[in-house]
Amino acid sequence: MASRRLRPSVTIIMALGALTLGYVSACGSNAEGSSAGSAEHKIALITAARNNPFFSPMECGAKKALGELGGGKLEVSAPSTPGDVPGMVQIINAAMAKKPDAIVIDPIDTAAFSPALRAAKDKGIKVVLVDNTLTDAKSYDTAIGANNEVGGEQAGQEMVKALGGQGKVLTLNGFPGQETLTAREEGFKKAVSGSPGIDYLGVQYSKQDATTAASVTAAALAKTPDLKGIWATSYNDMIGAVNALKRANKLSQVTVIAWDTTEDQVKMVRDGEIHALVGQSPELMGYNGVQSAYKLFDGTTVPQSQPLDTLLITKSNVDDPKTAQYFYTTKCDS
Amino acid sequence: MTNLAEVTRKRVSKIHAGELSSATWVTAALFLILALFIIMNPAEFGTASNLSNIALDASILLVLAVGGTYVLITGGVDLSIGSVLVFSSVAGAKVMQHFGGAGGDAVIGGLAAALVAGAGWGFINGFVITRMRVAPLVVTLGTLGMALGFALMWAGGNDLQGVPPNLVYRFGLGNILPGIPAVATVAAFVALVAGVVLAWTKFGRYTYAIGSNSESSKRAGIAVDRHLIKVYMLGGLLAGLAGFLSLARFGTTSIAGHNLDNMNALTGVIIGGTSLYGGVGKVFGTVIGTLIPAVLQNGFVIAGLPPYWQQVAVGAVLIFAVYLDRARRDAELS
């Protein structure tokens, strides 16, 4: 799960919700056509939610790429209940009836979409995954998503730099054994381990719950009053860590670096409350997704895994125009 | 006749003896755990600021668990409270944003919205359970999905901000007296009032009576259905209050962080000696039952033990608590 918006546990609950609603809402895909020029190629973009700060930029990027490639038809669909996995599977099946040339989808569950997407591939539809990926490599042509380990490394290098190579640091992580989150921690660990003055205290788990994140941070501060740095691998971890640091009056003493780029996180970097963010770009995911689909139409070979660079965002580049494409927002900038 | 009266008297005294021993055991366990951690890490664990942090960590869950205690005593269960918390905090945040995210209007409006939203879901639970005769487990599993689904739709799948900064700094992060967090004070007050009402009022006696024997309560002239609706509304109202407290503490809705709240609250209630079979339980037990996981969480981080052990320990305490309940029932029947 490269997106913090929809974690497996949320997904399960959302699926439960959809079940209890008797699939009424799940069927309602609010598909919407956006034609740009000659309807040469038809692309179906399937996300987990509309008007969402993570998925809206993805739509923007897809539209932008299509415009640059000289047109085609883009149809964007999402379940009416955000993150409703069965609803998304139904949307895939409905989209197939319209015979698109490619399906670009964020598979928010690592397995549930594989059968439907395999069926699509068998009909000659190109399948491009964005943000997340699937375990079954035969169910898609290419997958584009943030390189979580490199993102973690960027955070680690910045931590070393910010601390002048000295001090005790720890990672706040959501769940053990969750691939994406583990990669973020591994990358960070690799980067800080190279610095002999850094004492890496390891990882504490929060279940991505702000209260638990605050609780373990407060306990870590009690144990290690000279703690110097915290790497929070997602939004709620950072919210909890900052909360505990504020209560202990230690926010200025501890360098916080976090994954994700919500509006309030960006503001905190601007205000100097936290040191840096590692940003992934949903806009680039959408943009590259459509570009890859066109390459596949032309018969160009596309690598099955296309890791996307993450951007380290500090006070020095937060207002850089190029940084904005890494922010979660509901507005298209172009 | 004397025989029957004798048997009844004996049975009642046995119930009380059982309850006492269960609550005493669990309280003793809490003190034992506290003592162990203080001996292991006297300089870090036993400090006033650390104990105050533990109280704060347990407080929002305690508010949820107090409602859960009433529901469990009636022989029911409420799985929806975590989702109702999220829904209520979204309602509160929306109203706060409406009032410009500052000032007394925003705080009072947000509190009112959260409480009304919570009580509303509680009413739905109670109404469907009593008037449509659907089992509480099923109804609240349904509303668990529905409340979260509606919350996500309303919030656009995105965490909402706009909580007045003064509410966060003065109340959410603040202390009423030095070392006594405001949020924990509210939780303690809620527990005190709910405990008194349960132990010494007609409302409390009806709650026990329905849980012990719903049929004979009806014959005794208790309006069982109306009372059950009130109990579920109380559970919802407290989930709404917890949603407001969570907003005040974190300044954001932290939607994804409450998937396990219902299970954590239920764990606290059961550890505290409330019987899954209904009719038995005390708010005091729930206070202790909620504190044990919070103490373990904090203590394990400070002791530097792997975080997984905390879950193992909580699980063991839970099973032990239910064993005590079982033993009490067996003693009662023999």
UniProtKB/TrEMBL annotation, chain A:
Its main location: other. It comes from Kribbella caucasensis. This is Ribose transport system substrate-binding protein. Signal peptide: none annotated. InterPro entries: Peripla_BP_I, SBP_2_dom. It is found in: Cell envelope. It comes from the Bacteria. Residues 43-300 form the Periplasmic binding protein domain.
Automatic annotation (TrEMBL), chain B:
One of its GO terms (cellular component) is plasma membrane. InterPro entries: ABC_transp_permease. It comes from Kribbella caucasensis. Its main location: membrane. The keyword Cell inner membrane does not apply. Keywords: Cell membrane, Membrane, Transmembrane, Transmembrane helix. The keyword Transmembrane helix applies. This is Ribose transport system permease protein.
